[in-house]
Amino acid sequence: MDKAPMIEAIGLSKKYEDGVLALDNLSFAVRPGEVYAMLGGNGAGKTTTINLFLNFIEPTAGEARIDGIVTHRDPLAAKARVAYVSENVMLYPNFTAMQNLEYFTRLSGRPAPTPEALHRALLRTGLAEEAHHKRLRGFSKGMRQKCGIAIAIMKNAPAILLDEPTSGLDPQAGFEFIALLKSLRDEGKAVLMSTHDIFRAKEAADTIGIMDRGRLVMQRTAGELAGEDLERVYMQHIAGHDGLAA
Amino acid sequence: MLKLVIQKELRDILTSTKFIVSFVSCALLILLAFAMGAAGYRADVARVEAARRENLKQMEGLTDWMMVRNNRIFLTPQPLASLVAGVSDDIGRTMEVRGRGEMPQEDTRYGEEPVFAMFRFLDLEFIFQTVLSLFAIVFAFDAVSGEKERGTLRLSFANPLPRATFMAGKLAGSFLALAVPLLVPILIGCAVFTLMGVPLTTDEWMRLALIIGSGLLYFGAFLALGIAVSAMTRSSSTSFLALLVIWIFAVLIIPRSAILIAGRAVDVPSLDDINAKKFRYAEQLFAEDRAAMNAFSPADRSDPRKMIEEFQKFMGNINDARQKKMDEFSSRLNEERANAQGVQSSVALGIARISPATCFTLAASALAGTSLALQDRYIAQARAYQVSFAKFILGKTGINPGGGMVFRMRIGDGEQEKPIDTHELPAFEYRRPVLADVLPAALPDAGVLAACVFLFFAVAHVAFRRYDLR
Amino acid sequence: MFGTVLVKELRAVLLSPKFPATFAVCSLLIVLSVFIGIREFRGAAARYAEGLELAAQTLRTQSTWMNLSTTAYRKPDPMQVFVPGVDGDVGRLSPITGTEDVKLTNSRYADDPLFALFRSIDCAFVVQVVLSLFAILFTYNAVNGERESGTLQLTFAGAVPRTTYILAKIAGAWIALAIPLIVPVLLGILLVVVYGVPLGAGGWARCGLFMLASLFYFTFFVALGVLISALTRRPAMSFLAALAAWVVLVLIVPRIAVMAAGTLRPVPSVAETEGWIDAFAKDRMDEQMKALGARWQERQAPMQGMSPEARQAYQQSKQQEWANEDDAARQEVQKEIDAYRVRVNEEQGNRVADQERLAFALARFSPASAYQIAAMTLAGTGVSLKATNEAAMREYRRAFTQYAAGKQKESGTQAGFRITVDSQTGFHFSAPRERGTLDVSGVPAFAPPGVKLSEVVSSALIDTGLIAVLALLACAAALAAFLRYDVR
Question: How far apart are CA C430 and CA C426, in angstroms?
Fold first, then answer.
């Protein structure tokens, strides 16, 4: 009944050459069909965690696993199983949305996609059809982010990593994004989402983790947090605040 | 996956405004170089023809081949020289042939018309060496750092893409996207060249193809270098600054300074000194001969004509003897100087070859026949011509031409003497080198260029392996 | 307000990697070029001294006034240290003889073609090519870079007048570029002083004007960069446009201008004009020979029927008269040939000057050519180098041959060889008697035409003025473009 974790950190630590301890013994797991929201301030270690899962850096201790594959030992195999949407999606400005999507889909190892499939993916993200053949140079942030998600959709990987996906989106776009996220989760994808957005995290996540200075200081399921004020919980755990004076 | 990355690179470059602007500018320049080269060549040919005509004209009406003075030969223009000027504008193009002795070269193009020396020519070699290398840098400087700044690097490597594949795709794709389109204006230029009436032999077409090939190698080297530097820096502006400095040194500074500094380190006997020595020796010999001439007394005093003939033969003999001594003396001094110059150029050019720009210029000018070897070839062919000219005059007059005073007496018996037929005079045509002649000189430099390409290719791969993709 | 923006601008540039890179590169290049310039000049001066010595020696060893010949040398100008110009392309010396015309031969590059392959690196080149490139690098994102980073909008949310802002920007870039120029030039001047290059007061004045032209020159490119930056929205575009402009102005226009002038106003080659002169000379010589022959026939006439002793006596008495007659005839012909030669040379000179004027007019569209022209004019190593020296040498040749002819008459030696053939007296040959070495102390020496400060300065002021005007126009255009710029 308990599925094997799709995205898993086991005692993950990262110490940089200048001595900064970015991650300290981080352990968590995201199962298929689960959305894990990772909250934390700037410099808490969220981006470092994602970079470790993508093998952009190597851990000083512990393991990062995608679908049971240890990323720093078998990076290519791991990367085949994970999709990534960065915070500020920029892509190739000369290419159209379709061309960008086609390139990155093929790069992911999938066979050449049909134009219909590409259109479908873009439409699913909510990108209007007129924009599909327009060059990315003129796109707003929301439109570009939709392209980024379409790339992840086309890759159809069991694990998805999202870095600050709702930052800078207007309320409508944010709402659409959460709906899309939930549908991906319902497809059985495992989603790790790093975010500042407490509101959206409460809305979409199945599990919420709070990171502070490289350590996971709290992890609760959505059910456990149901009645609480997530903001207060957050403040409590960050920098040892005893919460706001009530 | 390599093919995919190459295709992406091709599309990315070819659809950018940067490419359209740069490519059109380069294409225009290339066409301009071909057109102006063709026009220049035809003008040069016309000038040499006019000079030749004048040269023959001032011989017309002469009644005696012995009276032929100022037989001038000219370095016939080579079509490839209008594309790769080399040193063809710096060496003397005219030589006065007297049948024996030295033939100083005169009338360099730049010496005759200093305004050209001031601004120089826009030849294909200049465009390749200076403009195309800059063009390569403009595209290569943000090859990697640009993708990083854009975030596409991260996105690409969130996929099972080996780093080596990405880098190889970048290098191959950039080269294809930039070099192949350049072939279009080059081919059009070649057509323009032919249409404007510049005849190239098959051998010259092959040499031109090799020149263009070296140019593309040179371009590839700068492209690879640019991508390598881009794979060593985080920001595009840093990599551009670094590449600009490298370009300034490689293309503008190193060739010049290396030659100036290393060249002056080798001692070459001064030409003024040698000429003075020759002059003094000639004076000395002439003074000796004058004494002999004063002492001459004809054997047969019966007939004035016979006396004159005898005197002529006597003069001929002492001229020959003196000329032989002069030749020996001169050739010894000349050889010393030539050897020293050879050492000097080996040292200077050897050091200058650090820069791929030097290698390209040397390879291109060797192939075009306008390298330093042009001077040697011209002199050698002129000497051979001088020998055939001397034989010709000997055949016509029975006396060896050249050297000091020529004695010819006109006996006014009122007989009508026939003017010489100037068309009998052997003509000098500079024989252009063929591929087999120039390849040994060009190959090492082309080899260095190819080595540069491989080296920078390897450096790019190694640098990128350690590149922070985040 | 101006001060605030200026200080910010300076701080921003000085702290970016552009400044140390520019400073290092320009310092190295300018000092290197001055160093090389000094070495080359000293080499040229040594060769000049050696040449004078050789000419004096050769003069002393000649034994007859008849075919007295020497060599005139072009004197190197100390300003060559900074701007060698066409000094390497124009011949260094000319033979001075009674029979040949003056022609400058044995240029540095013709003697040693190795150095012609890549030519020289000099101060003017560094400023013209390298400094202008760095000027573009400094300013291509002056306006649109600030727009992109949002600071432009922020600035103009306050009460900053646009004019003040853009002028402070230009001034900031200017100062940041002037430092890498002025500091190494001062070092270069130090080198010049230490190595004892004899610049003289006139030389220093010309140096000063050269610096002024250099400052105007890079001002143009600073303004051009700012202008292009204020015309485009994205720095990537302005960078490409500025680079393209640089390539066209610095590399392309000067060369095309001169090639166009060569095609539009072609000049016959020296080989051709020499051919004309030779043909003319040959014709006159022919006539003279015929006349000489006729004269000798006449001279024989009175001697018919004389006894051998009477004939010899008659010949000896008439010898001097006949020699003078023949000399006079020969000189007459020589004068004609010389006059023709002068005319041909004059016409050729006019044609060349025409071509040069057209080339300059076309080239002056680019400040790079104007700068080059100004620099070479100041150094005395421009296109006039050849014409001026050849004219002076021709004057000298006149004086020299006159002197030699005078001396020859004095010494009484006959010009030319004398051959008499007579069926009675037989064959008689006489060469000019040798007098041992001559006293050549009185032979006039060649006075190399120096650079006339007033001429050179007034001529260079035209081009310097042109650059200044272009720089001013560029600044005005930059200002105008910025006033209309959308800061969002």
Answer: 13
Measured from the Cβ of residue B25, the count of other Cβ atoms closer than 10 Å reads 18
Here the tokens at position B172 are: 């191959």
Contact B130 C115 (CB under 8 A): no
- B152 → closest Cβ in A54, A90, A106: A90
Cα–Cα dist A151/B315, whole Å = 99
In a domain, B416, yes or no: no
Angstrom distances, CA of residue C191 to CA of A13, C79, C81, C195: 60, 14, 11, 6
Select the residue of B39, B248, B263 nearest C114 (Cβ to Cβ).
B263
Say what the ipTM of the complex is. 0.89
Between chain B and chain C, the number of residue pairs with CB atoms below 8 A apart is: 292
Could A86 and B8 be called an inter-chain contact, meaning their C-beta atoms sit closer than 8 Å? no
The angle subtended at Cα C417 by Cα C414 and Cα C423, nearest 5°, is 115
C289 C-beta neighbours (distance < 10 Å), count = 14
Residue in B105, B121, B294 nearest the CB of C255: B121
User: pLDDT tens digits, residue range B189-239?
Assistant: 999 999 998 989 999 999 999 999 999 999 999 999 999 999 999 888 899
Residue B300 lies in a domain: no
Domains present along chain A, CATH in parentheses: 1-81+158-246 (3.40.50.300), 88-156 (3.40.50.300)
Contact flag A51-B161 (C-beta cutoff 8 Å): no
3-class state of residue B310 by DSSP: helix
Contacts of C336 (CB under 8 A, 6+ apart): C284
Residues in chain A closer than 8 A to B12 (CB atoms): 92, 94-95
Q: Are B90 and B217 in contact (CB under 8 A)?
A: no
C143 contacts C152 by C-beta, under 8 angstroms: yes
- Residues of chain A found within 8 Å of residue B162, distances taken between Cβ atoms: 76
DSSP state letters, C270-323: HHHHHHHHHHHHHHHHHHHHHHHHHHHHHHHGGGTT--HHHHHHHHHHHHHHHH
The structure's pTM equals 0.89
B441 and chain A in contact, CB less than 8 A: no
Could you tell me which of A77, A83, A119 has the C-alpha nearest to residue A99?
A: A119
Give the gap in angstroms from C-alpha B104 to the nearest C-alpha of chain C.
Answer: 10
Q: What is the pLDDT of residues C428-455, one digit of tens each?
A: 666 655 555 677 778 888 888 888 888 8
Q: From the list A94, A104, A106, which residue is nearest B12 (CB)? A: A94
Cβ-Cβ contacts under 8 Å for A11 (sequence gap 6 or more): A25, A26, A27, A61, A62, A63
Residue A245 pLDDT > 50: no
- Asked whether residue B448 is domain-assigned, the answer is yes
Structural domain contains residue B361: yes
- Chains near A with 3+ CB pairs less than 8 A apart are B
Residues shown for chain C: 488
Q: Is the pLDDT of residue A246 over 50?
A: no
Backbone angles phi, psi at C316, to 5 degrees: -65, -40
- How many Cα neighbours within 13 Å face the side chain of C137? 27
Tell me the two tokens of residue A158.
């069991």
**Burial bucket for residue B302 (CB in 10 Å: 0-12, 13-18, 19+):** exposed
Number of domains present in the structure of chain B: 1
Instruction: Show the domain range for B88.
Output: 1-266+355-409+422-470
Residue of C nearest to B68 (CA): C282
- Residue B414: its pLDDT value, please? 53
The C-alpha atoms of residue B254 and residue B346 are separated, in whole angstroms, by 16
Work out the average pLDDT over C177-187: 93
Helix (H, G, I), strand (E, B) or coil at B303: coil
Q: Which of residues 419-478 of C touch B (CB under 8 A)?
A: 419, 421-423, 426-427, 429-431, 434
Of A51, A91, A99, the CB nearest to B470: A51
Burial class from Cβ neighbours inside 10 Å (0-12, 13-18, 19+) for residue C349 reads middle
